[in-house]
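Late entry, written up from scratch paper. The run itself happened at the end of the previous shift, but nothing got recorded in the book at the time, so transcribing now.
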Amino acid sequence: MDKIPTMGSGKPTYAVKTVISVLLEEVALTRALLDDNSTAHIGNAIVCLSTRLIGSDLTIEQLKTMLPGMFLTTFAFSYTFDIANQTFSVEEDTINKPNRPIPSGRLSINGAYMRWLLSWAISLAVIGLTVNLKAASMLLQWKVWISLFYVWPKFQNWVARNLFTAVGATIQLRLLDAVLIKTIPSFRADSSLMWLLFTWLVWTIHVQEFHDTEGDERVGRQTLPLIVGRRGQFPLRLMTAIIIGGTGVSSVVLAQIWRAPNPAMLCLGLAHLLFMVNVAVRLVVLPFKEADKITYKYYYILATYSLLLFRQHTERLGSIGGDVIELG
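Output as recorded:
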């Protein structure tokens, strides 16, 4: 007769094994929920943090102290969006993203509702207790903003969709600022970075809509590519390409990167220009679903991050619209 393992035997009991199995499955499920937007959310956090810290005197000890808060806020920001988005967009995901947990059958709709409610309640308390009340208030604003677009009343027009992402990105930036303030009480956020990010996304974030037109049309979303119709697709792509490419060219011209005081600044400017032009060219010459998906998920996001980094470096060096000033 087999012996039932006990806690004193040094072997995990059946109950412990079950708990571990459930936790591992939940971790895998969470990873699947966050997968589609992880590049944007994590990348945005890293770039926004790095741009904020340019020229700062942050110590290694302060960085170590700050990292747990950065991880928690980024995770809470991502999970808050993805669980609501996927819980209330099942029909669209069935067409556009059938491998997501709910349409693939990995997560039931009741399970999604339960995780949505629990996570939204718990995350506020966790962030408020571990970071500060300002971070919790920013996370609450993010939840309200998500609710307006995905829960009720579900604003669907293209202007609202562009605003959703633009405002969401600035909320994440301010959420990270709250963590910085906790670590460095003297830190004062520069609002110009927030407005640059907001303006850029308002004018260009519809790049993300090109590869989702089929599902968006079925659920009645009024995205810009659907509004202009098939005949208007190429002019829209061309206009967007001009805005993106023009932003890259004007950035390096205004910054006068050929007069940069060090090679690193020149390389950053050229990389920024390359990313921008690459997105512009891909939008026009590769008007296909899979190509559009790659353009948005990788090249457009890289272009956005290079824009923020380049702008912050040039402002620090005092080279926007004037002579380059090398800092001592």
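The chain is about 75% helix and 0% strand.
(Scratch paper discarded after transcription.)
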